Amino acid sequence: MSFTAPRTASLTSLALAVAAACATLTAPAYAQTTAIDAVIVTATRAPQLQRDVLSDVTVITAEDIARSGAGSIIDVLQRQRGIEISRNGGPGTNSAVFIRGANSNQNVVLVDGVRIGSSTSGAANWSALPLQAIDHIEIVYGPMSTLYGADAIGGVVQIFTKKGAGAPAVTASAGIGSLKTREYDASVYGATGGEHSFSYAISAGKEESDGFSATMPGNFSFNGDKDGYVRENATGQFGFQLAKGHDVGLVFLNSRTNGQIDSGTPVVIYDARSIQKQKNVGVFTKNQFLPLWHSTLQYTQSEDNSVSDPGTVSGYSSIVSKQHDWTWQNDIRVGDDMLQLLYSHRKEEVVSGSTPALGKERSTNSLAAAYNMKLGAHLASVSVRNDDSSQYGSKSTGAIGYGYRFSNALRASATFGTSFRAPSFNELYYPSYGHPDNKPEKGRNFEAGVQYHEGALELSATVYRNKLTDMLVSTSPCPKDVTKYPFGCAYNVNKVTLEGITLAASHRVGAFNVSASADFQDPKDETTGKSLARRAKEHGTATVDYTAGPLVAGVEWQVSGKRFDDAGNRNRLGGYGLVNLFATYQLTRDWSLVGRVNNATDKSYQVARYYGVAGTTYFAGIRYGLK
Protein backbone atom coordinates (compact mmCIF):
# COMPACT_ATOMS: atom_id res chain seq x y z
CA MET A 1 0.00 0.00 0.00
CA SER A 2 1.39 3.38 -1.03
CA PHE A 3 -0.48 5.35 1.61
CA THR A 4 1.67 7.22 4.11
CA ALA A 5 0.05 8.68 7.21
CA PRO A 6 0.42 12.48 7.19
CA ARG A 7 2.03 14.08 10.19
CA THR A 8 0.70 17.22 11.83
CA ALA A 9 0.97 18.42 15.41
CA SER A 10 -2.73 18.07 16.12
CA LEU A 11 -3.14 14.55 14.76
CA THR A 12 0.10 13.37 16.26
CA SER A 13 -1.30 14.50 19.60
CA LEU A 14 -4.54 12.72 18.86
CA ALA A 15 -2.73 9.53 17.94
CA LEU A 16 -0.92 9.74 21.27
CA ALA A 17 -4.33 10.12 22.94
CA VAL A 18 -5.43 6.90 21.28
CA ALA A 19 -2.24 5.18 22.42
CA ALA A 20 -2.73 6.47 25.96
CA ALA A 21 -6.26 5.09 26.03
CA CYS A 22 -4.88 1.79 24.87
CA ALA A 23 -2.13 1.62 27.42
CA THR A 24 -3.61 3.07 30.62
CA LEU A 25 -7.14 3.31 30.51
CA THR A 26 -16.92 0.57 29.21
CA ALA A 27 -18.50 2.63 27.04
CA PRO A 28 -17.49 6.22 26.19
CA ALA A 29 -19.88 9.15 26.49
CA TYR A 30 -20.97 8.37 22.96
CA ALA A 31 -19.81 5.24 21.23
CA GLN A 32 -16.66 5.40 19.13
CA THR A 33 -16.41 1.63 19.16
CA THR A 34 -19.19 -0.86 19.52
CA ALA A 35 -19.79 -2.95 22.63
CA ILE A 36 -18.87 -6.49 21.73
CA ASP A 37 -22.23 -7.92 22.79
CA ALA A 38 -24.35 -5.32 20.99
CA VAL A 39 -26.82 -6.70 18.46
CA ILE A 40 -26.19 -5.31 14.97
CA VAL A 41 -28.81 -5.43 12.20
CA THR A 42 -27.42 -3.36 9.33
CA ALA A 43 -24.18 -5.28 8.71
CA THR A 44 -25.94 -8.48 7.60
CA ARG A 45 -29.60 -7.34 7.29
CA ALA A 46 -30.36 -9.63 10.25
CA PRO A 47 -29.73 -9.43 14.03
CA GLN A 48 -26.19 -10.52 14.85
CA LEU A 49 -23.83 -10.07 17.79
CA GLN A 50 -21.11 -7.55 17.07
CA ARG A 51 -18.49 -10.15 18.01
CA ASP A 52 -19.62 -12.15 14.93
CA VAL A 53 -19.77 -9.21 12.48
CA LEU A 54 -16.84 -9.03 10.08
CA SER A 55 -17.61 -5.50 8.90
CA ASP A 56 -16.31 -2.44 10.73
CA VAL A 57 -19.30 -1.08 12.70
CA THR A 58 -20.15 1.75 15.11
CA VAL A 59 -23.33 1.98 17.18
CA ILE A 60 -24.58 5.25 18.70
CA THR A 61 -27.24 4.77 21.38
CA ALA A 62 -29.94 7.13 22.64
CA GLU A 63 -27.98 7.62 25.85
CA ASP A 64 -24.85 8.41 23.84
CA ILE A 65 -26.76 11.09 21.93
CA ALA A 66 -28.28 12.58 25.09
CA ARG A 67 -24.95 12.74 26.91
CA SER A 68 -23.08 14.22 23.96
CA GLY A 69 -25.30 17.29 23.86
CA ALA A 70 -25.31 17.27 20.06
CA GLY A 71 -27.76 19.63 18.39
CA SER A 72 -28.32 17.78 15.12
CA ILE A 73 -27.69 14.42 13.51
CA ILE A 74 -24.85 16.02 11.56
CA ASP A 75 -23.21 17.00 14.87
CA VAL A 76 -23.51 13.39 16.03
CA LEU A 77 -22.02 11.95 12.85
CA GLN A 78 -19.18 14.47 12.76
CA ARG A 79 -17.95 13.06 16.07
CA GLN A 80 -17.63 9.49 14.81
CA ARG A 81 -14.51 7.86 13.46
CA GLY A 82 -14.22 7.59 9.69
CA ILE A 83 -16.71 10.42 9.05
CA GLU A 84 -16.33 14.02 7.89
CA ILE A 85 -19.03 16.55 7.11
CA SER A 86 -19.47 19.65 5.00
CA ARG A 87 -22.32 22.12 5.50
CA ASN A 88 -23.37 25.24 3.62
CA GLY A 89 -24.26 27.20 6.74
CA GLY A 90 -26.32 26.25 9.80
CA PRO A 91 -28.47 23.21 10.69
CA GLY A 92 -31.21 24.18 8.22
CA THR A 93 -28.90 24.13 5.19
CA ASN A 94 -27.57 21.38 2.93
CA SER A 95 -25.00 19.01 4.41
CA ALA A 96 -22.73 16.34 2.98
CA VAL A 97 -21.47 13.28 4.87
CA PHE A 98 -18.22 11.62 3.74
CA ILE A 99 -17.55 8.08 5.00
CA ARG A 100 -13.92 7.02 4.59
CA GLY A 101 -13.49 9.80 2.05
CA ALA A 102 -16.32 8.63 -0.23
CA ASN A 103 -18.65 11.22 -1.75
CA SER A 104 -21.93 11.96 0.01
CA ASN A 105 -23.81 10.23 -2.83
CA GLN A 106 -21.71 7.08 -2.40
CA ASN A 107 -23.39 6.09 0.86
CA VAL A 108 -26.76 4.46 1.56
CA VAL A 109 -28.96 5.96 4.29
CA LEU A 110 -31.87 4.06 5.85
CA VAL A 111 -34.47 5.10 8.41
CA ASP A 112 -36.07 2.03 10.04
CA GLY A 113 -35.27 0.03 6.90
CA VAL A 114 -36.66 2.69 4.55
CA ARG A 115 -34.09 3.91 2.05
CA ILE A 116 -34.01 7.70 1.73
CA GLY A 117 -32.28 10.10 -0.61
CA SER A 118 -32.80 12.29 -3.64
CA SER A 119 -32.65 10.61 -7.04
CA THR A 120 -31.57 13.93 -8.57
CA SER A 121 -28.55 14.62 -6.34
CA GLY A 122 -28.07 11.01 -5.25
CA ALA A 123 -27.55 12.05 -1.61
CA ALA A 124 -29.68 11.95 1.55
CA ASN A 125 -31.28 15.11 2.90
CA TRP A 126 -29.74 15.25 6.38
CA SER A 127 -31.31 18.59 7.34
CA ALA A 128 -34.79 17.01 7.38
CA LEU A 129 -33.91 14.24 9.87
CA PRO A 130 -34.91 14.99 13.50
CA LEU A 131 -32.38 14.08 16.18
CA GLN A 132 -34.97 13.88 18.97
CA ALA A 133 -36.80 10.96 17.36
CA ILE A 134 -33.72 8.73 17.10
CA ASP A 135 -33.29 5.68 19.32
CA HIS A 136 -29.94 4.59 17.94
CA ILE A 137 -27.75 4.70 14.81
CA GLU A 138 -25.69 1.96 13.18
CA ILE A 139 -22.82 2.87 10.85
CA VAL A 140 -21.28 0.14 8.70
CA TYR A 141 -18.03 1.16 7.01
CA GLY A 142 -16.97 -0.08 3.60
CA PRO A 143 -18.79 -1.31 0.48
CA MET A 144 -22.18 -2.96 1.08
CA SER A 145 -23.58 -3.21 -2.46
CA THR A 146 -24.09 -6.97 -2.20
CA LEU A 147 -26.64 -6.33 0.56
CA TYR A 148 -28.03 -2.90 -0.35
CA GLY A 149 -27.38 -2.46 -4.07
CA ALA A 150 -26.39 0.77 -5.77
CA ASP A 151 -24.52 3.57 -3.99
CA ALA A 152 -23.18 1.59 -1.00
CA ILE A 153 -19.52 2.37 -1.77
CA GLY A 154 -18.35 4.19 1.36
CA GLY A 155 -20.77 2.63 3.83
CA VAL A 156 -24.32 2.43 5.15
CA VAL A 157 -25.92 4.55 7.87
CA GLN A 158 -29.15 3.22 9.38
CA ILE A 159 -31.19 5.37 11.76
CA PHE A 160 -33.61 3.62 14.10
CA THR A 161 -36.43 5.64 15.62
CA LYS A 162 -37.99 4.87 18.99
CA LYS A 163 -39.77 1.52 19.31
CA GLY A 164 -42.57 0.50 21.65
CA ALA A 165 -41.94 -1.98 24.48
CA GLY A 166 -43.03 -2.57 28.07
CA ALA A 167 -45.59 -0.63 30.07
CA PRO A 168 -46.97 2.64 28.64
CA ALA A 169 -44.51 5.48 29.15
CA VAL A 170 -43.89 9.06 28.12
CA THR A 171 -40.68 10.95 27.41
CA ALA A 172 -40.37 14.66 26.78
CA SER A 173 -37.76 17.38 26.64
CA ALA A 174 -37.51 21.13 26.18
CA GLY A 175 -34.55 23.43 25.88
CA ILE A 176 -33.26 26.84 24.88
CA GLY A 177 -29.91 28.07 23.72
CA SER A 178 -27.83 30.59 21.84
CA LEU A 179 -29.14 32.17 18.63
CA LYS A 180 -32.63 31.94 20.17
CA THR A 181 -32.66 28.19 19.69
CA ARG A 182 -35.74 26.40 21.04
CA GLU A 183 -36.39 22.66 21.05
CA TYR A 184 -39.43 20.65 22.19
CA ASP A 185 -40.29 16.99 21.74
CA ALA A 186 -42.45 14.29 23.29
CA SER A 187 -42.93 10.55 22.82
CA VAL A 188 -45.37 7.93 24.00
CA TYR A 189 -44.60 4.25 23.70
CA GLY A 190 -45.44 0.86 25.11
CA ALA A 191 -46.73 -2.61 24.35
CA THR A 192 -49.46 -4.96 25.45
CA GLY A 193 -48.70 -8.52 26.50
CA GLY A 194 -50.39 -11.77 25.62
CA GLU A 195 -50.54 -13.92 22.53
CA HIS A 196 -51.65 -11.04 20.29
CA SER A 197 -49.35 -8.31 21.53
CA PHE A 198 -49.45 -4.77 20.18
CA SER A 199 -46.55 -2.31 20.35
CA TYR A 200 -46.58 1.38 19.61
CA ALA A 201 -44.29 4.40 19.66
CA ILE A 202 -45.18 7.90 18.50
CA SER A 203 -42.88 10.92 18.67
CA ALA A 204 -43.29 14.55 17.67
CA GLY A 205 -40.98 17.51 17.94
CA LYS A 206 -40.17 21.02 16.87
CA GLU A 207 -36.97 23.01 16.84
CA GLU A 208 -36.29 26.53 15.67
CA SER A 209 -33.45 29.01 15.74
CA ASP A 210 -32.67 32.51 14.51
CA GLY A 211 -29.37 31.06 13.31
CA PHE A 212 -26.37 32.93 11.93
CA SER A 213 -25.37 34.11 8.48
CA ALA A 214 -25.12 31.11 6.14
CA THR A 215 -22.60 32.97 3.96
CA MET A 216 -19.41 34.90 4.66
CA PRO A 217 -17.74 37.84 2.90
CA GLY A 218 -16.36 36.56 -0.40
CA ASN A 219 -19.39 34.38 -1.11
CA PHE A 220 -21.11 35.25 -4.39
CA SER A 221 -24.42 35.65 -2.51
CA PHE A 222 -23.13 37.08 0.77
CA ASN A 223 -25.75 38.67 3.01
CA GLY A 224 -24.76 39.33 6.62
CA ASP A 225 -28.25 38.76 8.07
CA LYS A 226 -29.20 35.79 10.26
CA ASP A 227 -30.44 32.65 8.50
CA GLY A 228 -32.70 30.73 10.83
CA TYR A 229 -34.77 27.60 10.44
CA VAL A 230 -37.81 25.77 11.76
CA ARG A 231 -38.02 21.95 11.76
CA GLU A 232 -41.17 20.00 12.64
CA ASN A 233 -41.39 16.22 12.69
CA ALA A 234 -43.47 13.21 13.61
CA THR A 235 -42.41 9.56 13.64
CA GLY A 236 -44.06 6.32 14.65
CA GLN A 237 -43.85 2.55 14.79
CA PHE A 238 -46.67 0.04 15.26
CA GLY A 239 -46.38 -3.73 15.55
CA PHE A 240 -48.93 -6.50 15.98
CA GLN A 241 -48.33 -10.19 16.66
CA LEU A 242 -50.87 -12.23 14.70
CA ALA A 243 -49.59 -15.45 16.23
CA LYS A 244 -46.33 -16.67 17.67
CA GLY A 245 -43.69 -16.13 15.00
CA HIS A 246 -45.96 -14.03 12.78
CA ASP A 247 -45.83 -10.23 13.04
CA VAL A 248 -46.97 -7.27 10.98
CA GLY A 249 -45.95 -3.67 11.42
CA LEU A 250 -45.82 -0.12 10.13
CA VAL A 251 -43.23 2.66 10.42
CA PHE A 252 -43.45 6.27 9.32
CA LEU A 253 -41.56 9.55 9.41
CA ASN A 254 -42.74 12.99 8.35
CA SER A 255 -40.37 15.93 8.68
CA ARG A 256 -40.33 19.47 7.31
CA THR A 257 -37.49 21.98 7.55
CA ASN A 258 -37.98 25.58 6.49
CA GLY A 259 -34.62 27.32 6.42
CA GLN A 260 -33.43 30.73 5.31
CA ILE A 261 -30.57 30.90 2.83
CA ASP A 262 -28.71 33.74 1.12
CA SER A 263 -29.25 33.93 -2.61
CA GLY A 264 -28.81 36.21 -5.59
CA THR A 265 -25.81 38.01 -7.06
CA PRO A 266 -23.51 40.74 -5.80
CA VAL A 267 -25.86 43.19 -7.51
CA VAL A 268 -29.16 41.79 -6.17
CA ILE A 269 -28.95 40.01 -2.81
CA TYR A 270 -32.09 38.59 -1.24
CA ASP A 271 -33.29 36.09 1.32
CA ALA A 272 -34.67 32.83 0.03
CA ARG A 273 -36.26 29.82 1.63
CA SER A 274 -35.09 26.24 1.32
CA ILE A 275 -37.95 23.95 2.30
CA GLN A 276 -36.99 20.30 2.74
CA LYS A 277 -39.62 17.63 3.33
CA GLN A 278 -38.94 13.98 4.08
CA LYS A 279 -41.83 11.49 4.13
CA ASN A 280 -41.28 7.78 4.78
CA VAL A 281 -43.67 4.91 5.26
CA GLY A 282 -43.05 1.18 5.46
CA VAL A 283 -45.21 -1.87 6.08
CA PHE A 284 -43.90 -5.36 6.72
CA THR A 285 -44.77 -8.88 7.70
CA LYS A 286 -42.32 -11.18 9.47
CA ASN A 287 -43.06 -14.88 9.52
CA GLN A 288 -41.38 -17.89 11.11
CA PHE A 289 -42.73 -20.48 8.65
CA LEU A 290 -40.38 -23.22 9.87
CA PRO A 291 -38.07 -23.41 12.91
CA LEU A 292 -35.08 -22.64 10.68
CA TRP A 293 -36.76 -20.34 8.13
CA HIS A 294 -37.60 -16.69 8.82
CA SER A 295 -39.22 -14.62 6.06
CA THR A 296 -39.67 -10.85 5.85
CA LEU A 297 -41.78 -9.16 3.20
CA GLN A 298 -41.61 -5.36 3.20
CA TYR A 299 -42.89 -2.45 1.13
CA THR A 300 -41.45 1.02 1.70
CA GLN A 301 -41.91 4.41 0.13
CA SER A 302 -39.85 7.53 0.70
CA GLU A 303 -40.37 11.00 -0.69
CA ASP A 304 -37.74 13.73 -0.79
CA ASN A 305 -39.34 17.08 -1.57
CA SER A 306 -37.03 20.05 -2.12
CA VAL A 307 -38.43 23.52 -2.68
CA SER A 308 -36.41 26.69 -3.23
CA ASP A 309 -38.60 29.74 -2.70
CA PRO A 310 -36.95 33.11 -3.48
CA GLY A 311 -40.02 35.06 -2.44
CA THR A 312 -40.73 37.89 -4.86
CA VAL A 313 -37.71 37.09 -7.02
CA SER A 314 -38.19 34.75 -9.97
CA GLY A 315 -36.53 31.35 -9.94
CA TYR A 316 -38.87 29.21 -7.79
CA SER A 317 -37.97 25.52 -8.07
CA SER A 318 -39.51 22.31 -6.83
CA ILE A 319 -38.22 18.76 -7.13
CA VAL A 320 -39.99 15.69 -5.74
CA SER A 321 -38.06 12.43 -5.68
CA LYS A 322 -39.83 9.18 -4.76
CA GLN A 323 -38.55 5.67 -4.11
CA HIS A 324 -40.73 2.56 -3.93
CA ASP A 325 -39.15 -0.67 -2.65
CA TRP A 326 -40.49 -4.20 -2.42
CA THR A 327 -38.17 -6.59 -0.56
CA TRP A 328 -38.57 -10.27 0.22
CA GLN A 329 -35.83 -11.57 2.51
CA ASN A 330 -35.43 -15.18 3.65
CA ASP A 331 -33.06 -16.11 6.49
CA ILE A 332 -32.38 -19.85 6.77
CA ARG A 333 -30.45 -21.27 9.70
CA VAL A 334 -27.92 -23.98 8.90
CA GLY A 335 -26.63 -24.99 12.32
CA ASP A 336 -24.78 -21.90 13.58
CA ASP A 337 -24.59 -20.54 10.04
CA MET A 338 -27.05 -18.34 8.14
CA LEU A 339 -28.08 -18.56 4.49
CA GLN A 340 -29.84 -15.44 3.22
CA LEU A 341 -31.80 -15.15 -0.03
CA LEU A 342 -33.21 -11.81 -1.12
CA TYR A 343 -35.31 -10.34 -3.93
CA SER A 344 -36.10 -6.64 -4.28
CA HIS A 345 -37.82 -4.34 -6.71
CA ARG A 346 -37.01 -0.63 -6.55
CA LYS A 347 -38.65 2.14 -8.53
CA GLU A 348 -37.34 5.71 -8.58
CA GLU A 349 -39.28 8.61 -10.03
CA VAL A 350 -38.76 12.36 -10.15
CA VAL A 351 -41.30 15.13 -10.66
CA SER A 352 -39.88 18.62 -11.24
CA GLY A 353 -42.08 21.57 -12.10
CA SER A 354 -39.09 23.85 -12.61
CA THR A 355 -36.96 21.39 -14.65
CA PRO A 356 -39.29 19.10 -16.64
CA ALA A 357 -36.35 17.24 -18.23
CA LEU A 358 -35.67 15.59 -14.83
CA GLY A 359 -39.17 14.05 -14.79
CA LYS A 360 -38.01 10.48 -15.43
CA GLU A 361 -38.22 7.10 -13.72
CA ARG A 362 -36.26 3.85 -13.58
CA SER A 363 -36.79 0.42 -12.04
CA THR A 364 -34.30 -2.09 -10.65
CA ASN A 365 -34.85 -5.79 -9.94
CA SER A 366 -32.31 -7.41 -7.64
CA LEU A 367 -31.41 -10.93 -6.55
CA ALA A 368 -28.90 -11.56 -3.76
CA ALA A 369 -27.54 -14.45 -1.71
CA ALA A 370 -25.29 -14.42 1.34
CA TYR A 371 -23.82 -17.08 3.63
CA ASN A 372 -22.40 -16.31 7.08
CA MET A 373 -20.42 -19.07 8.76
CA LYS A 374 -19.22 -19.71 12.33
CA LEU A 375 -16.94 -22.65 12.98
CA GLY A 376 -14.99 -22.62 16.21
CA ALA A 377 -12.57 -19.70 16.08
CA HIS A 378 -13.31 -19.13 12.40
CA LEU A 379 -15.78 -16.63 10.93
CA ALA A 380 -16.47 -16.31 7.21
CA SER A 381 -18.97 -14.69 4.88
CA VAL A 382 -19.62 -14.66 1.15
CA SER A 383 -22.29 -12.73 -0.75
CA VAL A 384 -23.28 -12.06 -4.36
CA ARG A 385 -25.87 -9.80 -5.94
CA ASN A 386 -27.19 -8.77 -9.33
CA ASP A 387 -29.04 -5.49 -9.92
CA ASP A 388 -30.83 -5.23 -13.26
CA SER A 389 -31.88 -1.65 -14.02
CA SER A 390 -34.13 -0.33 -16.77
CA GLN A 391 -31.67 2.57 -17.13
CA TYR A 392 -28.10 1.37 -16.57
CA GLY A 393 -28.46 -2.37 -17.25
CA SER A 394 -27.13 -5.28 -15.21
CA LYS A 395 -24.52 -4.88 -12.46
CA SER A 396 -23.11 -7.76 -10.39
CA THR A 397 -21.26 -7.35 -7.10
CA GLY A 398 -19.66 -9.74 -4.64
CA ALA A 399 -17.96 -9.80 -1.26
CA ILE A 400 -15.98 -12.27 0.82
CA GLY A 401 -14.67 -12.02 4.37
CA TYR A 402 -12.75 -14.06 6.91
CA GLY A 403 -12.08 -13.59 10.60
CA TYR A 404 -10.15 -15.53 13.23
CA ARG A 405 -10.47 -15.31 17.02
CA PHE A 406 -7.08 -15.71 18.67
CA SER A 407 -8.88 -15.50 22.02
CA ASN A 408 -12.18 -14.27 23.40
CA ALA A 409 -10.68 -10.80 23.47
CA LEU A 410 -8.67 -10.63 20.23
CA ARG A 411 -9.90 -11.02 16.66
CA ALA A 412 -8.43 -10.25 13.23
CA SER A 413 -10.38 -10.07 10.00
CA ALA A 414 -10.08 -9.21 6.31
CA THR A 415 -12.71 -8.53 3.66
CA PHE A 416 -12.85 -7.88 -0.07
CA GLY A 417 -15.88 -6.49 -1.88
CA THR A 418 -17.03 -4.77 -5.05
CA SER A 419 -19.59 -1.99 -5.25
CA PHE A 420 -21.12 0.57 -7.60
CA ARG A 421 -23.02 3.86 -7.69
CA ALA A 422 -25.82 4.50 -10.16
CA PRO A 423 -25.75 7.83 -12.02
CA SER A 424 -28.09 10.39 -10.48
CA PHE A 425 -30.89 11.89 -12.53
CA ASN A 426 -28.95 15.17 -12.62
CA GLU A 427 -25.99 13.35 -14.18
CA LEU A 428 -28.31 11.71 -16.69
CA TYR A 429 -30.94 14.27 -17.63
CA TYR A 430 -30.21 17.78 -16.33
CA PRO A 431 -30.31 20.19 -19.31
CA SER A 432 -26.90 21.02 -20.78
CA TYR A 433 -25.17 18.90 -18.12
CA GLY A 434 -26.43 15.32 -17.83
CA HIS A 435 -26.07 12.60 -20.46
CA PRO A 436 -28.29 9.46 -20.63
CA ASP A 437 -25.33 7.25 -21.61
CA ASN A 438 -23.41 7.83 -18.39
CA LYS A 439 -22.45 4.56 -16.68
CA PRO A 440 -22.35 3.54 -13.00
CA GLU A 441 -19.23 4.17 -10.95
CA LYS A 442 -17.43 1.00 -9.79
CA GLY A 443 -15.46 0.21 -6.64
CA ARG A 444 -13.12 -2.56 -5.42
CA ASN A 445 -12.26 -2.49 -1.71
CA PHE A 446 -9.88 -4.49 0.47
CA GLU A 447 -9.57 -3.95 4.20
CA ALA A 448 -8.11 -5.68 7.23
CA GLY A 449 -8.65 -5.02 10.89
CA VAL A 450 -7.83 -6.06 14.44
CA GLN A 451 -10.22 -5.75 17.39
CA TYR A 452 -9.47 -6.22 21.07
CA HIS A 453 -12.08 -6.21 23.84
CA GLU A 454 -11.17 -7.15 27.38
CA GLY A 455 -13.42 -5.95 30.18
CA ALA A 456 -13.63 -2.17 30.01
CA LEU A 457 -10.98 -1.85 27.31
CA GLU A 458 -11.83 -1.68 23.59
CA LEU A 459 -9.25 -1.21 20.84
CA SER A 460 -9.52 -1.39 17.06
CA ALA A 461 -7.37 -0.70 14.02
CA THR A 462 -8.54 -0.90 10.41
CA VAL A 463 -6.64 -0.33 7.17
CA TYR A 464 -8.51 -0.05 3.86
CA ARG A 465 -7.98 0.64 0.16
CA ASN A 466 -10.95 1.34 -2.12
CA LYS A 467 -10.22 1.77 -5.85
CA LEU A 468 -12.96 3.55 -7.81
CA THR A 469 -13.25 3.74 -11.59
CA ASP A 470 -15.60 5.45 -14.07
CA MET A 471 -16.07 8.30 -11.60
CA LEU A 472 -18.64 10.82 -12.75
CA VAL A 473 -17.26 14.34 -12.63
CA SER A 474 -18.00 17.68 -14.25
CA THR A 475 -15.68 18.12 -17.24
CA SER A 476 -15.19 21.13 -19.46
CA PRO A 477 -15.05 20.97 -22.41
CA CYS A 478 -17.48 18.08 -22.60
CA PRO A 479 -16.12 15.02 -24.49
CA LYS A 480 -19.66 14.17 -25.55
CA ASP A 481 -20.62 17.27 -27.55
CA VAL A 482 -19.07 20.69 -27.00
CA THR A 483 -21.87 22.40 -28.91
CA LYS A 484 -24.65 20.80 -26.86
CA TYR A 485 -22.73 21.18 -23.57
CA PRO A 486 -20.96 24.56 -23.84
CA PHE A 487 -20.28 24.75 -20.08
CA GLY A 488 -19.22 21.14 -19.57
CA CYS A 489 -21.06 17.96 -18.60
CA ALA A 490 -21.12 14.96 -16.26
CA TYR A 491 -18.86 12.27 -17.68
CA ASN A 492 -17.27 8.94 -16.61
CA VAL A 493 -13.64 9.97 -16.73
CA ASN A 494 -11.85 9.83 -13.37
CA LYS A 495 -10.25 7.20 -11.16
CA VAL A 496 -10.12 7.62 -7.40
CA THR A 497 -8.32 5.84 -4.57
CA LEU A 498 -9.70 5.99 -1.03
CA GLU A 499 -7.20 4.56 1.43
CA GLY A 500 -6.44 5.04 5.06
CA ILE A 501 -6.02 3.80 8.60
CA THR A 502 -8.50 4.21 11.44
CA LEU A 503 -7.50 3.80 15.09
CA ALA A 504 -9.96 3.79 17.99
CA ALA A 505 -9.84 3.11 21.72
CA SER A 506 -12.03 3.46 24.78
CA HIS A 507 -11.57 2.57 28.42
CA ARG A 508 -12.78 3.36 31.92
CA VAL A 509 -10.60 4.48 34.82
CA GLY A 510 -12.59 4.81 38.00
CA ALA A 511 -15.20 7.49 37.40
CA PHE A 512 -13.63 8.50 34.07
CA ASN A 513 -14.64 7.31 30.61
CA VAL A 514 -11.99 7.93 27.97
CA SER A 515 -12.33 7.44 24.21
CA ALA A 516 -10.35 8.54 21.18
CA SER A 517 -10.13 7.91 17.46
CA ALA A 518 -7.80 9.04 14.70
CA ASP A 519 -8.18 8.74 10.93
CA PHE A 520 -5.23 9.03 8.56
CA GLN A 521 -6.44 8.91 4.98
CA ASP A 522 -5.61 9.89 1.42
CA PRO A 523 -8.74 10.33 -0.73
CA LYS A 524 -7.14 11.09 -4.09
CA ASP A 525 -8.31 11.65 -7.65
CA GLU A 526 -5.81 9.49 -9.54
CA THR A 527 -6.65 11.16 -12.87
CA THR A 528 -5.61 14.61 -11.70
CA GLY A 529 -3.39 13.72 -8.76
CA LYS A 530 -5.41 16.06 -6.55
CA SER A 531 -7.05 15.47 -3.16
CA LEU A 532 -10.83 15.14 -3.13
CA ALA A 533 -12.60 18.35 -2.19
CA ARG A 534 -13.46 19.08 1.45
CA ARG A 535 -11.73 15.97 2.81
CA ALA A 536 -8.79 16.19 5.18
CA LYS A 537 -5.94 13.72 5.28
CA GLU A 538 -6.27 13.49 9.05
CA HIS A 539 -9.08 13.99 11.51
CA GLY A 540 -10.27 12.58 14.81
CA THR A 541 -11.80 13.06 18.24
CA ALA A 542 -10.94 12.51 21.89
CA THR A 543 -13.44 12.54 24.77
CA VAL A 544 -13.22 12.35 28.55
CA ASP A 545 -16.26 12.32 30.82
CA TYR A 546 -16.52 12.06 34.58
CA THR A 547 -19.34 10.61 36.68
CA ALA A 548 -19.93 11.86 40.22
CA GLY A 549 -23.23 10.58 41.59
CA PRO A 550 -26.03 12.16 39.54
CA LEU A 551 -23.61 14.31 37.52
CA VAL A 552 -21.93 13.34 34.27
CA ALA A 553 -19.71 16.02 32.76
CA GLY A 554 -17.26 15.83 29.91
CA VAL A 555 -15.04 17.54 27.40
CA GLU A 556 -14.50 16.66 23.77
CA TRP A 557 -11.78 17.60 21.34
CA GLN A 558 -12.42 17.49 17.58
CA VAL A 559 -9.51 18.04 15.20
CA SER A 560 -9.18 18.14 11.44
CA GLY A 561 -6.30 18.87 9.12
CA LYS A 562 -6.33 21.18 6.14
CA ARG A 563 -8.62 20.51 3.18
CA PHE A 564 -9.24 21.98 -0.24
CA ASP A 565 -12.64 23.39 -1.15
CA ASP A 566 -12.33 22.57 -4.86
CA ALA A 567 -11.32 19.64 -7.04
CA GLY A 568 -8.39 21.62 -8.46
CA ASN A 569 -6.94 22.14 -4.94
CA ARG A 570 -6.62 25.89 -5.44
CA ASN A 571 -8.68 27.02 -2.46
CA ARG A 572 -7.29 25.80 0.85
CA LEU A 573 -9.38 25.43 4.00
CA GLY A 574 -7.27 25.48 7.16
CA GLY A 575 -7.25 22.79 9.80
CA TYR A 576 -9.03 23.35 13.08
CA GLY A 577 -9.52 22.08 16.59
CA LEU A 578 -12.81 22.42 18.49
CA VAL A 579 -13.47 22.02 22.20
CA ASN A 580 -17.00 21.06 23.29
CA LEU A 581 -18.31 20.73 26.85
CA PHE A 582 -21.35 18.76 27.97
CA ALA A 583 -23.07 17.75 31.22
CA THR A 584 -26.09 15.83 32.47
CA TYR A 585 -27.50 16.03 35.98
CA GLN A 586 -30.02 13.41 37.12
CA LEU A 587 -32.53 15.19 39.35
CA THR A 588 -34.67 12.10 39.96
CA ARG A 589 -35.10 8.73 38.31
CA ASP A 590 -37.10 10.33 35.48
CA TRP A 591 -35.99 13.97 35.40
CA SER A 592 -32.62 15.25 34.24
CA LEU A 593 -30.96 18.48 33.22
CA VAL A 594 -28.68 18.68 30.18
CA GLY A 595 -26.29 21.37 29.06
CA ARG A 596 -23.66 21.87 26.40
CA VAL A 597 -21.19 24.43 25.14
CA ASN A 598 -20.06 23.87 21.57
CA ASN A 599 -16.90 25.45 20.19
CA ALA A 600 -16.04 26.68 23.67
CA THR A 601 -12.92 28.54 22.48
CA ASP A 602 -14.89 30.38 19.75
CA LYS A 603 -12.69 28.92 17.02
CA SER A 604 -13.08 30.52 13.57
CA TYR A 605 -12.98 27.87 10.83
CA GLN A 606 -14.70 26.74 7.63
CA VAL A 607 -15.88 23.33 6.37
CA ALA A 608 -16.99 24.92 3.07
CA ARG A 609 -15.38 28.05 1.62
CA TYR A 610 -17.20 31.29 2.41
CA TYR A 611 -19.98 29.48 4.31
CA GLY A 612 -20.54 30.32 7.95
CA VAL A 613 -20.22 28.15 11.03
CA ALA A 614 -21.34 28.92 14.55
CA GLY A 615 -19.01 30.41 17.10
CA THR A 616 -19.44 29.53 20.76
CA THR A 617 -22.99 28.34 21.40
CA TYR A 618 -24.82 27.30 24.55
CA PHE A 619 -27.80 25.06 25.17
CA ALA A 620 -29.64 23.96 28.31
CA GLY A 621 -32.65 21.71 28.63
CA ILE A 622 -34.70 19.46 30.83
CA ARG A 623 -35.66 15.88 29.99
CA TYR A 624 -38.27 13.53 31.34
CA GLY A 625 -37.46 9.87 30.83
CA LEU A 626 -35.01 8.42 28.30
CA LYS A 627 -36.00 6.06 25.52
UniProtKB/TrEMBL annotation:
Assigned keywords, A-Z: Cell outer membrane, Ion transport, Membrane, Receptor, Signal, TonB box, Transmembrane, Transmembrane beta strand, Transport
Signal sequence, start to end: 1-31
- Record-linked SUPFAM superfamilies: Porins
The primary location reported for this protein is: membrane
Q: Which terms in the GO cellular component ontology are assigned?
A: cell outer membrane
**Where do the TonB-dependent receptor plug domain residues begin and end?**
50-156
What compartments host this protein? Cell outer membrane
- Give the source's domain of life in one word: Bacteria
> How is this protein situated with respect to the membrane?
Multi-pass membrane protein
Name one matching Pfam family.
Answer: TonB_dep_Rec_b-barrel
**Biological processes, Gene Ontology terms:** cobalamin transport; monoatomic ion transport
Q: TonB-dependent receptor-like beta-barrel domain location, by residue?
A: 218-599
- Does the UniProt entry include the keyword Transferase? no
Family in the record? Belongs to the TonB-dependent receptor family.
What this protein is called in its record is: TonB-dependent receptor
Q: Which organism is it from?
A: Pseudoduganella rivuli
* Organism ancestry: Bacteria, Pseudomonadati, Pseudomonadota, Betaproteobacteria, Burkholderiales
